[in-house]
Amino acid sequence: MDFLAILFFLFLAIIIIIGESQKRKKRKNRIKPIISDIKDISTGFVEIKGKLKQINTMTSPMTRSECIGYSYSIMRFNSSRKKSVSSIDRGISESKERDRHIKWETISSDTACNDFYIEDHTDRIKVKAKGISIFLLNVNQADKKISGSMHTENLLLQDDREYVLVGTAKYNKKNELIIKKSDNEFVISDTLVDKLSKSDLPNKISKYGLIFMLLLIGLILLFVNGFLK
């Protein structure tokens, strides 16, 4: 393999990695909203922050609490050995003991939510909650171990906490501007939504970039080896 071939592969790999990175950056910039005052939003994809006002409540499945909505998950201990757990977080929790990882993996989850209002210092708007995803990080949380599984419940409440809502603003049949599920994200959380899926590397680069880099290293080593001979 000659030097021109190595340059070609190097150039091709760089172009692909940069291209995928730019596409992901453009896509992220296109769909990422900016937190707005409620009085200033119009139709389209929006992100707002405020306190919740309940319309009707429901009863949560584990603690039987009155709430606007809830997320409920069941996690199972997954390990080849019996080990103690030092801490449990939402989703998958890991701790290290005797140089081995132990995990709690989610085996089932459920979310339910009634319609509600969200308000800030400028105004309030109704949220049609059908299809909403609830992500609460240790907020209004209860854990209970049942038959070797960990049951976790997080409640969405009318309280003094500010929540972040991402959804699509549309006019209903009464010509009222509301927020509801559309093709975009529809999420309510106690933290900024972009932090929930923050990654150190773009997905495409992390998936394919390493393969290309290993290929390039191999080609360079072949070239150096041939040159030395």
Would you kindly provide a written description of the structure presented here, covering whatever features stand out?
- The protein is α+β, with helices and mostly antiparallel strands and 229 residues long.
- It folds into 2 domains: 1-35 and 195-229, no CATH class; 40-191, no CATH class.
- Helices cover 26% and strands 37% of the residues.
- The chain is built from 3 helices and 14 strands.
- The protein has helices at 3-31, 193-196, 203-228, and strands at residues 44-54, 58-59, 66-67, 69-78, 93-97, 100-113, 116-119, 124-127, 133-135, 141-146, 149-156, 163-171, 177-180, 187-189.
- A 5-stranded mixed beta barrel has the order 1-7-8-13-12. It has a 5-stranded antiparallel beta sheet with strand order 5-6-4-11-10, with no helix packed on it.
- α1 (3-31) runs antiparallel to α3.
- The protein is flat, with a radius of gyration of 24 Å.
Tell me the β content.
35-45%
- The N- to C-terminal Cα distance equals 14 Å
Unreliable runs: 80-101, 197-202
Q: Output mean pLDDT.
A: 76
The topology string of helices and strands comes to HEEEEEEEEEEEEEEHH
| Structural domains: how many | 2
| Largest sheet: number of strands, sense, barrel closure | 5 strands, mixed, barrel
Residue share in helix: 25-40%
What is the β-strand count?
14
Main-sheet strand order equals: 1-7-8-13-12
Q: If helices are DSSP runs of H or I spanning 4 or more residues, what is the number of helices?
A: 3
Structural class: alpha+beta
> Mind telling me the C-alpha Rg?
24 Å
- Report the principal-axis shape: flat
